[in-house]
Amino acid sequence: MTVIDVHTHVFPPLTRAQGRVLADAGEPWLRVHGDGTGMMMAGDAEYRPVHAGLWDAAARLADMDAAGVDVQAVSSTPLMFGYDAEPARAAEWCDLVNELVLDLCAAAPARLLPLAQVPLQDTALACAAADRARDAGHRGVHIGNHVGDRNLDDPGIVAFLAHCAEIGLPVLAHPWDMMAPERMRGHMLPWLVGMPAETQLSILGLLLSGAFERIPASLRLCFCHGGGSFAFLLGRADNAWHRRDLVRADSPRPPSEYTDRFSVDSAVFDPRALRLLVDVMGAGRVMLGTDYPFPLGEREPGSTIRACAGLDDAGRAALLGGNAAAFLAPDPALRVAERPSTR
Questions:
Q1: 113, 142 in Cβ contact below 8 A?
Q2: Mean pLDDT of 64-71
Q3: Which residues, if any, are the signal sequence (predicted)?
Q4: How far apart are CA 71 and CA 113, in angstroms?
């Protein structure tokens, strides 16, 4: 069976000078040490140590071969979104990042599928960037789960999601810039607590605002990290919808009736949690996601799926690759523009 990982990240070897496209301080950029290691930089500040799989296609492909992964969807690191920048500047930055991601994926175009980023702070510019990315060969778009205090149910972001549905571009939504940092000090609590909460907030915001009633059903939308807390707390949300008119004011159906409108990845790291996720979402709505190459990712890709009780061979094949193949399938009407070789 084909193994496809929908949730992996890249940080191209951007120089400090290239970082100034986005910010005068020259951020973000990548300091490469020449020994297979590097440092993600935010201006002068060191952000996170990394290894070559994050920016080097050969190292990435070697890791994939060793792990038994056939295909990766490759998306930028959330530090690179640039949502705080002036919109026109962010649009130029996204075009630069998207070109570099295409360059990396050109090393193995059948195995490395590029996802674009867009200046989500401006709906018109984001839609135009998505159009350019689609025509250039990107297989989807990668967005953060909010832009400042605007959640995914914001009218401008809903309009962008509707546009992606109309042009046949799948969307991968990733939590970032987590809430309440002043209360999540140390022990990676923003990643352990903030990320699941951010993702649940995004999903419930779309459901309870009625946004899915305004977005074409053709939208292919996937939330990372197993949808965060959503599956475990869905019963609470349904109970609230049935009992309180404040909860159901804008949503004609309870939250559990919208699980056919989006997908989630499998990055929950426990076969028991994955079993619940499959029960809630259905076996057709869960896809392998590892968060490669970051240290909190799944070290043995697909091991949680393979250990999940109650999945038959067809179900495991769907989660390991079949669902992702359908999710990432290009629009058959798409004519990808020829790109000049950079090699």
A1: no
A2: 98
A3: none
A4: 7
- Tokens of residue 111, six digits: 């195995």
**Structural tokens at position 41:** 């930089």
Q: Dihedral sign, CA of 175, 176, 177, 181? A: positive
**For the segment 151-184, what is each residue's pLDDT rounded down to a tens digit?**
999 999 999 999 999 999 999 999 999 898 899 9
Take residue 1 and report the two structure tokens written for it: 């069976």
pLDDT number for residue 339 = 41
**9 contact partners, CB below 8 Å, separation of at least 6:** 54, 74, 75, 76, 77, 78, 291, 292, 293, 294
Q: What domains lie within the chain, and their CATH numbers?
A: 4-9+57-327 (3.20.20.140)
Question: Can you give the three-state secondary structure of the chain, one letter per residue?
Answer: CCCEEEEEEECCCCCHHHHCCCCCCCCCEEEECCCCEEEEEECCEEEEEEEHHHCCHHHHHHHHHHHCCCEEEEEECHHHCCCCCCHHHHHHHHHHHHHHHHHHHCCCCCCEEEEECCCCCCHHHHHHHHHHHHHHCCCEEEEECEECCEECCCHHHHHHHHHHHHHCCCEEEECCCCCCHHHCCCCCHHHHHHHHHHHHHHHHHHHHCCHHHCCCCCCCEEECHHHCCHHHHHHHHHHHHHHCHHHHCCCCCCHHHHCCCCEEECCCCCHHHHHHHHHHHCHHHEECCCCECCCCCCCCCCHHHHCCCCCCHHHHHHHHHHHHHHHCCCCCCCCCCCCCCCC
Determine contact, residues 328/96, Cβ cutoff 8 Å.
Answer: no
For the stretch 230-286, pLDDT in tens is 999 999 999 999 999 998 999 999 999 999 999 999 999 999 999 999 999 999 999
C-alpha R_g of the chain = 19
Query: 4-41 burial string, b = 16+ CB within 10 Å, else e?
Result: bbbbbbbbbbbebebbebbbeebbbbbbbeeeeebebb
